[in-house]
Design a protein that fits this description.
This protein is about 35% helix and about 20% strand. The protein is of the alpha/beta class and about 475 residues long. GO terms for molecular function: ATP binding; tetrahydrofolylpolyglutamate synthase activity; UDP-N-acetylmuramoylalanine-D-glutamate ligase activity.
């Protein structure tokens, strides 16, 4: 679309916040007649509304259900569920609904420059880490790039800003993909699939289908998890450009058209001259920080996307070596009296916790919080043999306790009947009491944090503070 196409176009933006406000400002700047609707009418919303109204943008607070008259397009923030009355009214009126990702995709090249290709990543867990690894590899190759999208950096800023990029590393959530029908990436990866956000999508099938949209129209490579058939099935179902390849990644020895691990080496049998007989060494497992199994899988996916873009093996190695993970993602806090203390507060669902638990043995596990409807039997069954003990915190801890009673009755369990933030210090002390030299105290809650903490970052900080206080006492 050209600038002229937006002049006088009546656009409704659904929702304030991280993506809604930038979308409203961009559309207004293009000459569109913008109305923002928002469910909330609190002090923060009123402050945001005043800022937009000062620029000539209409804002309706406390009324996110009514479709403004003469609306020609809705641009929605990712969190708004598809069954909202606003979208029902839009469907009845024949008004298209785009997300912020769709808007950014449509606005590429608006300034006359050649748009940067997108290397896109989705999955239930590991998206942010993989996208940041990918950006590090691309930078090591000398490419101008940025990690953007669901990672918290606006795609609109990347597409319309003054910076000229060679390629973008793009994290996409299932919410964003649901509202991005035109997206066509250079190459894309689905890391894994596990039940999550089902209240938003309505079913696991709908959730998987939205994740699979990332493959639609891919030009070079569809990267999938060879150890999760569901991701490969999404590739099979995708309508891609002629010549686009399916590229698998695995923690095992790779087959042709796969990346994998051989004797502690990350190797490529996909982007080599003779993939039937040749393999290209990319990096050592020890180059991945931290070298936990699920993080090695993230590294392989990032490497596959970079290789699809033509990046050489040395840049893959250098990029992985330079990468440093975000806080609270299997982060080593301290070693005290031979016991390692690991903060994986980002493990807010069972799939993430399963990966974290698989990385250590023996474990004293700190778990619990808001379960979000999750069941824990499969998680506990898989981890039972590694558990030295368990300390439970949070509102829904009884669900984990009951699963432990069914599947690991011999494992000692400490149930902390308190949900104040000070419970974390007690949890660390109880975990220390259960641990022996050589053990790992792992805080991988498998639950959301909001029953006790503002977010998972604050939960992780509370754990780290408690561990450091313990270390200071032992000095």
């Amino acid at each position: 679309m050209s600038n002229q196409d937006w002049q006088g176009k009546r656009v409704t933006v659904a929702g304030l916040g991280v993506s809604g406000i930038p979308a409203a400002k961009v559309l207004h700047g293009l000459g569109a007649v913008v109305t923002v609707v928002n469910d909330g009418d609190d002090e923060r919303s009123r402050t945001q509304a005043a800022e937009l109204e000062a620029q000539g943008i209409t804002v309706r607070l406390g009324d996110g259900a009514t479709l403004p008259e003469s609306t020609e397009l809705i641009v929605t923030t990712p969190g708004w569920k598809p069954d909202k009355p606003l979208f029902t009214a839009a469907a009845e009126a024949g008004v298209p609904v785009w997300g912020d990702v769709e808007l950014a995709w449509r606005l590429r090249g608006l300034d006359g420059r050649e748009p940067a290709p997108w290397l896109a990543v989705t999955g239930t867990n590991g998206k942010t880490t993989t996208v940041r690894m990918l950006a590090s590899i691309l930078e090591a190759a000398g490419l101008r790039t940025a990690a953007v999208g669901n990672i918290g950096v606006s795609l609109l800023d990347a597409v319309l800003g003054d910076e000229k990029y060679d390629v973008l590393a793009v994290e996409l959530s299932s919410y964003q993909l649901h509202w991005a029908p035109s997206l066509r990436a250079h190459s894309a990866a689905v890391l894994n699939l596990a039940p999550d956000h089902l209240d938003w999508h309505g079913s696991m099938e709908a959730y998987a289908a939205d994740k699979g949209r990332i493959y639609e129209g891919n030009r070079i490579a569809c990267v999938y998890n060879a150890q999760e058939r569901a991701t490969e099935d999404l590739v099979r179902e995708a309508d891609v450009e002629e010549g686009c390849r399916a590229i698998g990644f695995t923690l095992a020895t790779p087959g042709p058209s796969q990346l994998g691990v051989v004797d502690g080496i990350l190797v490529d049998r996909a982007f080599v001259a003779n993939r039937q007989k040749q393999a290209q060494e990319l990096a050592e497992v020890t180059d991945v920080n931290p070298p936990a199994p699920h993080n090695i899988a993230n590294a392989l996916a990032a490497a596959a996307l970079a290789r699809a873009f033509g990046v050489g093996p040395a840049a893959v190695r250098d990029g992985l070596r330079a990468f440093r993970p975000d806080p609270h993602r299997i982060e080593h806090v301290a070693d005290i009296a031979g016991v390692a203390y690991i903060d994986d507060s980002k493990a807010t669902n069972t799939h993430a916790a399963e990966a974290s638990l698989a990385a250590y043995d023996p474990i004293v596990w700190i778990a619990g919080g808001l379960a979000k409807g999750a069941a824990f039997d499969e998680l506990v069954t898989g981890a039972a043999g590694r558990l030295r003990g368990v300390v439970l915190i949070g509102r829904d801890r009884a669900l984990i306790r009951e699963a432990l009673a069914r599947h690991a009755p011999e494992v000692p369990v400490v149930d902390l009947d308190r949900t104040d933030t000070g419970a974390m210090s007690e949890a660390v002390r109880e975990a220390t009491r259960l641990a022996r030299p050589g053990d790992t105290v792992l805080m991988a809650p498998a639950c959301a944090s909001m029953d006790m903490f503002v977010n998972y970052n604050k939960r992780g900080e509370a754990f780290a503070d408690a561990v450091r206080a313990l270390a200071a006492e032992s000095d």
